[in-house]
Write a structure and sequence with these properties.
137 residues; mainly alpha; elongated
Amino acid sequence: MSVTSEAVAVRRGPLVVAGGVIAAIVAASVANTVISLIALAAGAPDDFQPLKAGSYIFLTAVGTLIGALGWAIVRRVSKDPEALVRRLVPVVVVVSFVPDFLLYGNGGAIGVGALLLMHVAVAVIVVFAYRKVMPLS
């Protein structure tokens, strides 16, 4: 007797997924607030708009929602979503750094460094959340 074992993708209900994405937005926004406060205390310009809560919370929410959509697409269309995500996430994070470097004249090294750290923090938090509510396998 042979038993065929096929991986069955785990599907969560829409409320679980929405709750996980919202939790990721909140957690990432809290992390970004801490990073912003540290950067401002360390000498980032007080008028550097990307370190204002309204800016980074909005962009965190938008990025997290776009990331969730991308994650869902990868889950659906990729034959090996785990491998694709392992390559895709770092590339997306590095590409997201480009606009931050363009702000060097306004934010200086500390301001831009904080933004780069924010991107990494958000990526770590949302990937953790997506794996919980939208497992790849």
